[in-house]
Design a protein that fits this description.
Layout (H helix, E strand, L loop, with lengths): L8 H9 L5 E5 L14 E4 L9 H11 L2 E8 L13 H12 L6 E5 H8 L4 E6 L9 E5 L5
Parallel strand pairs: 1-5, 2-5, 3-4
Antiparallel strand pairs: 1-6, 3-6
Helix pairs in contact: 2-3
Length: about 150
């Protein structure tokens, strides 16, 4: 019987086989998961209907199962018609989730095209496609080392 909150068998199997520095992408409902996937990454669809499930819900489950050493967010545009002057609201949710998990990690934004490059690496092991409709909700996690 599992002690952590993550009960999805396929995701548990992928994480169980993963090693240090393995990358997990939690993708929002607008992310092009079929074309922006690492060469060895597996894709799991959890997009039931708009808003179910969210990236933050998946983050909570994954944080209960594996140690995370770094979290990158997709950088929003800083110029042009879609430029934002403050962090997207979903990032506040992520910070609250990290605090609740007793993790002292900062969200590290990466520019959109560099984010796609970071996902296209050999160490990208898993993409979880959600139905989150919030903008800039994509997050890329790096698995850390278990310390206990």
């Amino acid at each position: 019987m599992l002690k952590h909150q993550l009960i999805h068998p396929e995701i548990n199997a992928i994480l169980g086989a993963a090693g240090h520095h393995g990358k997990i992408l939690i993708a929002d409902g607008n992310y092009p998961a079929s074309s922006k996937l690492g060469p060895r990454a597996e894709l799991v669809h959890l997009n039931l209907m708009p808003g179910l499930v969210t990236c933050d819900q998946v983050l909570q489950a994954i944080l209960s199962a594996v140690p995370i050493e770094e979290i990158n967010t997709m950088m929003y545009e800083t110029e042009g018609p879609y430029a934002l002057t403050e962090d997207p609201p979903v990032w506040t949710e992520y910070r609250q989730t990290l605090k609740a998990a007793k993790l002292d990690l900062e969200l590290k934004p990466i520019e959109k095209w560099a984010f796609y490059d970071a996902v296209a690496t050999e160490d990208h092991i898993l993409t979880v496609q959600t139905a989150d409709q919030q903008r800039y909700a994509n997050i890329l996690l790096a698995i850390g080392v278990r310390m206990d």
